[in-house]
Design brief:
1 helix, mainly beta, about 10% helix, about 120 residues
């Protein structure tokens, strides 16, 4: 991250304008990565949509969150990639994506919060 910050600072402070690389383009001379729009949805195990789930492309700062219906959209995503799904109180899940069809099924996040213990009632004599 510090190298990215340094590059950004150098680019902004440079006396001569420089062209920014196109999204998904690697270092000069490397083959461009295929990109696609990734869309999907996230639910709880009981199929209830989960809103506010963080969806990040692993190893990058690119991401989004799910809407009220549990749906997300990541435009111009380089493939293959790994998506990381996180939500407070739920187990983090990673999904390897090699093509957009990998997200046809819902991503299911399970809760890690334990149900409150119930105290046994004593019967009065």
């Amino acid at each position: 991250m510090s190298a990215l910050w340094l590059s950004l600072v150098l680019l902004l402070c440079s006396p001569t304008p420089r062209a920014l690389p196109a999204l998904g383009q690697g270092p000069p001379g490397s083959a461009p990565q295929p990109q696609t729009v990734l869309a999907g949805y996230v639910t709880a195990p009981d199929s209830v949509p989960l809103a506010g789930v963080s969806v990040l492309i692993q190893g990058t700062l690119t991401g989004t969150t799910t809407n009220a219906e549990g749906r997300f959209l990541l435009p111009a995503t380089p493939l293959p990639c790994t998506l990381v799904f996180t939500l407070a109180g739920h187990a983090t899940k990673t999904v390897a994506v090699t093509e957009a069809a990998d997200l046809l099924a819902p991503v299911v996040l399970r809760s890690v919060l334990a149900a409150p213990a119930r105290k046994a009632r004593r019967q009065r004599p």
